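hi! just following up on the protien thing from before. the input was this:
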Amino acid sequence: MKHFLVFMTLLTVTISFAQKGTVSGTITDKDMNNEPLPFANVMIKGTSIGTTTSEKGTYSLQVDPGNYTLVLSFLGYQTVEIPITIKSGQTVTINRALTSGEGVMLQDVVVATSVRRNTEVALMTEMKEAKQVVSAISAEQMSKGTDGNAAEAVQRVPGVTIVDGKFVMIRGLSERYNNVLINNSIAPSTEVDKRTFSFDLIPTDAIDKIVIYKTASADKPGDFSGGVISITTSENSAEFTKLGFSLGYRANTTFEDYFQSEGSETDFLGFDLTYRALPRGFPSKTQINDLPGVNAAASQRLKNNFNPNRSSAMFDNGIGFSLGRNIKFENGMKLTTVSALSYSEGYQYYQRRFTRYTSLNEGETRPPVWFDYRDDTYKKENRITVLSNWIWKINSNNTLKFKNLFNQIGENETILRNGSNFLQRGEDLFKNYLLGYKARSIYIGQFEGEHKLNSTNKIDWTIGGNYIFESEPDLRRFRTIQPADSPNAPFEMIDPASSNLFDTGRYFGFLSEYSLNNSFNYTHTIERIKNDEEIGSIVLKTGYLTDYRQRNFDARYFSYLLPGYVVENRNELKQLPLTEIFNSVNVNPNNGWVFNEGTRAIDSYDSSNFLLAGYAFAEVPVYKFNFTGGLRVEHNILKLNSSNETEPIAIENPVTSVLPSLNVTYNLSERSILRLAYAKTVNRPEFREIAPFVFYDFENEAGRRGSENLKTAAIDNLDFRYEFYPTKGETMSLGAFYKKFKNPIENVTEITTEQPQFKYANADNAFSYGLELELRKSFKEVSSIPFIQRLSTNINASYIVSEVDLGSDVTSQAQKRELQGQSPYIINAALGYEDEKGFGVNVIYNRFGNRIFSVGDNIFPTIYELSRDNIDLTFSKKIQKTTFKIGIQDLLNAKYQFFEDSNRDEKIEKRIDNPTSVFRRGTLFTFNVTYSF
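and the predicted 3d structure came back as:
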């Protein structure tokens, strides 16, 4: 009822504008063949009435009858004042062609700078002019907080939550329901086993804006339901040279003990040179397992590297250099470039309590504990980021853009696990180890062109290329045990019966993927004039998209086994120190450990995906309505080639999808808009999801298999939103959405052994609906007190309900439940202060509701991630050419808590249900200095 009353009040206020007069028009650039000039300021002098021009250079203001002065201005432009007379119910049209040069008349403007599109005001205008339901965050807004990458920044957008610190969920839908565009080019998938993009790869310094399209249109990819996330990297056209340094102190990590096994001399650059990698010409599985001499020799070619070394974690640190240059040529051409190079190193330690329970039996208030561990986790990341963007403005009608982003990331991880597995070994004490390193090289590039053929026709195109190489060399996992009745006895290595991934295991994984995409769009504008007044142009648009991805994945794994004939010194071999146990002396085919390979044919695969799409699109304004609709047709061919133990596996899934969409906008007034949208979209399976074999899921310690019969999911999307723009840079919106899914792809549990196993399968159907509220407000006009005038706030919240029906055939879990990963509510709030002397303070708050982390079954209960409060605080001060920033990230250091639903009532009560994983990451204090030359 409260939302309804607010809506009706705002509607009444906007209707009152009908008795006013209107001043409208178009601002163009005379020197650029009258090209529209967007984001120019239009104000009524002496009042707070104002707006900015749209992307098409248009503006419109509703004003009470009377005599006024219309003021046209922009940063770096000469201010223009024009006397006007407004009459009730009438429209005054003021069009101006602005020009540069000396000695201009009053109606002319001197162009001094390029239009900035990465500010909050510019982004508000873009959201207002958009024909879809859009949310966004600008570079200006990101600069006010502690966010260091796109993942941290995008969670400030309404309806967005982050999983694992890098994957984006929109409106409660998992990352598989999103599509990502980087500079209008389809982004690569950065993970091995699912289609998703790791948003922590892009630093905020490299971003101009992030725009999330929550409704579909024919000119955007149709494989989504949560949102299309469009990231535009830096296009700053100002001349600048900057050098920055940063230091970070993390509570409970910095200057504390840090453990890591021996690494490569190039680890600090984010890659392993040769230390951990399989040597060239390493023997095959058959040679290793069947030839004793080759077996021992192969083991000796790998480093004896099983003992983590102790050191101290130093400050997180980083350095960055960036510059922007403009080159103007005598023939009028202009070349703009933005380049940046940054390096960072960060440490992280936390202790996690990791617990699993058996079933809750009748009469019990708590289930018996299966195992109870303390995981000491040590992580270190080294990252190099290179950005190089070039924009060549040939003339007013032709622009070329060449953008490049490269990341080299090295991640070292050590887990030292201590505790008991009561189900397996009673009170015996386990000490388990994980020693791992992962290196990733990621290149994302685009070549774009924009060409204005004449006043009514233009084309734009994009050629994109992506490349990913991921290496996980020598992931070592092994377990040791000490009898409970012998606390002084040495820990003994658990020797497996056969080669596997978790006992005396060494795993080597390699993934390479490249993708090429090309899009082309043609736009035709039909100008309409009635009584010498422009009444709104019809826009027709058509184009195509092609995208090809090729992925190769290879893995090999080995274990050290003790053959049955080794009897005399068997216990002594298992009790040797970690520095000696697998050295060249103790690995031999006679009386020692035997090196054995367990790799199967299905541990490698080749796959490809080809997408061809075409569309037709029209935008038709009618009175206060704007109808935008179109049809998109996508043909997708997904292929995968692998083999099992007996035969090759070849899968080919061609699917054609017809995707209509309609967006309707009704302009209640110059400041308020109603939007209604419908679209049909799809969600396609990913490479691993169609592979009909079991592979090991490291994160969840479970098996996971795909299904070659997996279908493409179809989604009907319906959106309604009211938007109100009180003044420049401010907005209030209230929206509702509903989604209906047919054949959604879900994780379904299979009961195979005492460990859980999951498979990908199509559920029968699902639905999701919710409300979204956003408010961006400046306090400048609220009070005459200077302190209050300098405040601004950004608040957004979402309420979401979902349900998936797995169908009557499901046997091991509930037929109906919430969508995995969906939070019932999301709250983001920010309060900022900024004065005229360059001092600023920003407080940012985030909270999400309890959400399903892993889906349970008849044996393993569902595990929920509990809500937590997160507060970030930033202080900044600019002194001449130097900017200082102090940040406090995760001020409350609230617990990360994962609880199982022990009594299976689909809610978590701490007095009844039980924790499975609990830890704190520690508050991070940062200090940044940036100097502008």
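The first helix runs from residue 2 to 15.
The chain has nine helices and 53 strands.
cheers
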